[in-house]
Amino acid sequence: MDLRATIFDEIRTVAAEQKKRLPSLTDELSLQESGFDSLCFAILFARLEDITGGDPLATAADFPRTIGDLVALYDQALA
Predict the structure, then answer these.
(1) How far apart are the first and last CA of the chain?
(2) Which of 2, 8, 26, 40 could make a disulfide contact with 36, Cβ separation 3.0–4.6 Å?
(3) In this structure, what is the dihedral angle of CA atoms 20, 23, 26, 30, given to the nearest 10 degrees?
(4) pLDDT number for residue 69
(5) Could you give the dihedral angle defined by the CA atoms of residues 44, 63, 23 and 78, in that order, rounded to the nearest 10 degrees?
(6) pTM beyond cutoff 0.90
(7) Which residues contact 42 (CB under 8 A, 6 or more apart)?
(8) Can you list the domains of the chain with their CATH numbers?
């Protein structure tokens, strides 16, 4: 599974369902500037848990700041 592509796809899917306008998705994009609200993040994280079988956010020392940080967190947890 291409984890980065999966996360980006899920971000796009949640944005479309919640009628949120996304800026260009890059690893450097701040999660705060993504256009997501708390409901969008909750949906995204629940779906990623279903897809990956884990929730690395539950044990993370720090909440990811960028999309790249989010990808790295999931990548590290699944390694």
Answers:
(1) 12
(2) 40
(3) -80
(4) 96
(5) -60
(6) yes
(7) none
(8) 3-78 (1.10.1200)
